[in-house]
Amino acid sequence: MLKTSLLVPAFSKFSSLACIKSDLIYKNPYNRLKQYLEVPVLEKDNIFSPDVETIFAAQELFIPNRFHSIKFITSGIGPEKFPNHDLPEVILMGRSNVGKSSLLKAIFRNVPSLLIRTSKKPGHTKTAQFFQIGSKLCIVDMPGYGFNQPEWIEDVLESCIKRKNCVRTFLLIDGKVGVLESDEVAIDMLESFRAPYAIVMTKIDKTADSRLLRNILHLKNVKKSSVYCYAQPFMISSHTYEGLGNLLAFIGHITGNLELRNTKSISSE
After folding, report:
1. What are 89-134's pLDDT values in tens digits?
2. CA 130 – CA 74 distance, rounded (Å)
3. Where in this chain does the record put each EngB-type G domain (predicted)?
4. Angle, alpha carbons 254-259-262 (nearest 5°)
5. CB of 25 within 8 A of CB of 18?
């Protein structure tokens, strides 16, 4: 396999990806953390680790062009306000101030015209927001739970998650603080919906490796009895982009937009 340092210059003339901050977008944080453990956090077969070419293809999904527009389409708190389309949808949900807006900005970094609505006040966003990626997929940003959460958040979550075109929900956990009681409630709720979901640990660039490992191990214990959670938590830095490529490749595959090479097939287990 070609080294990442050689691949990026070779591809940059065909794409706006030349503005990538570093090659950390191609890195899997598990490879950095496993040096501290005698026993792996995850079994080898449960680590989603696509190759560089696959990650590059995944990023191309999130670059607009003449025939592939990326835009905000609507927001709302009930099914009557949700878009009527057949695009596969993925949902981002998490505690207030967990880093959802930062993750969205990282995902859409090549779409400077796209406004990601944020607030300095945790819990201020009150609606589900839908972002359309061409004719490929839709990302749904849910209001944060916990502090100042809307009373109806569970109902609107259920309405979104049970839509026929929802393929996965991503539950964001703050990598600095780990799983809180409100996160455990969210996990129990997702299990009750019987819909596949995956965990994303954010802010790993602001978290010491030792604390991140403790939080990952605690999460592994919390979700021992889970049925619908994907085995691997994804670790992400929205600032350095470390781990982001893995997540984008996962999203590309589960929405039917990306074939995987040299990695384990995906299930809801």
Report:
1. 999 999 989 999 999 999 999 999 998 866 555 555 678 899 999 9
2. 6
3. 86-257
4. 110
5. no
> Which H or E element spans position 202?
strand 197-202
- Coil vs helix vs strand at 95: strand
- In one-letter notation, the amino acid at residue 255 is T
Which DSSP state fits 65?
A: B
Q: What are the tokens at 162?
A: 């049970």
Token pair of 47, please? Answer: 């680590």
- Helix (H, G, I), strand (E, B), or coil: what is residue 199? strand
pTM, whole model, 2 decimals? 0.87
Positive or negative torsion for Cα 230, 232, 238, 243: negative
Bridge partners, residue 93, by sequence: 171
Residue 172 φ/ψ, nearest 5 degrees: -90, 135
Beta carbons of 135 and 67 less than 8 angstroms apart: no
- Who contacts 121 (Cβ-Cβ below 8 Å, separation ≥6)? 148
Measure CA of the first residue to CA of the last residue in the chain; give whole Å. 29
Residues 114, 62: Cα–Cα separation, whole Å? 12
Task: Identify which of 54, 82, 122 has the alpha carbon closest to the alpha carbon of residue 262.
Answer: 54
Using CB atoms within 10 Å of the CB of residue 25, give its burial: 0 to 12 exposed, 13 to 18 middle, 19+ buried: buried
pLDDT above 70 for 64: yes
Q: How far is CA 188 from the centre of its chain?
A: 19
